[in-house]
Amino acid sequence: PRKAAFTPKRKLKIWIAGDSLVITPGYAIVRAAGASHVMQSAGVDGRIATGLTRPDVFNWFDEIRRQVKELRPDVVVLDFGGNDDKAYMTGLPEGTTIDDFGGSVWRREYARRVGGVMNVINRAGGFVVWLGLPQTRSPDQTARFDVVNAVVEKQARKRPGRAVYLDTYRLFAGDDGGYTQY
Description:
Largest sheet: 5 strands, parallel
Helix content: 25-40%
Shape: globular
Structural class: alpha/beta
Strand content: 15-25%
Number of helices: 4
Oligomer: single chain
Order of helices and strands: EHEHEHEHE
Strand order of the largest sheet: 2-1-3-4-5
């Protein structure tokens, strides 16, 4: 697509959304946008204990569709998956049952959801920046997050010029490349 030029009169509008892991980086992005003459924030919509696997808890699919229509952001920064590393999903298509977390059926359904979210944003004219899940203190949880990250990264790669996956491992790693609390 043709690249837009952003100016103080035509600012790049950024909307940030996702589970609780998007809140802190989201507000850092808002601060950076506020310091820029060519960017503006459309806000941070971080919801604790939500994700893409449980639309019965909070339906991000409807929320994203509504918000991109209303806000018309140029860029949508997303972070989901912190609560999605389970072998349980609601809102499945008729006749679909989920296998174990990370199994082929789980990956296919999670990819459908991730890709669907990206497509909704792209069709509305927005570019997707998806923040990868970080390393954690728990090697088991980090391994589960790796599964989620792999699905998201693959979906972003299918949309060159319209979506990007941002690997947070190196950004938030300790001096040894592993987990660090600060």
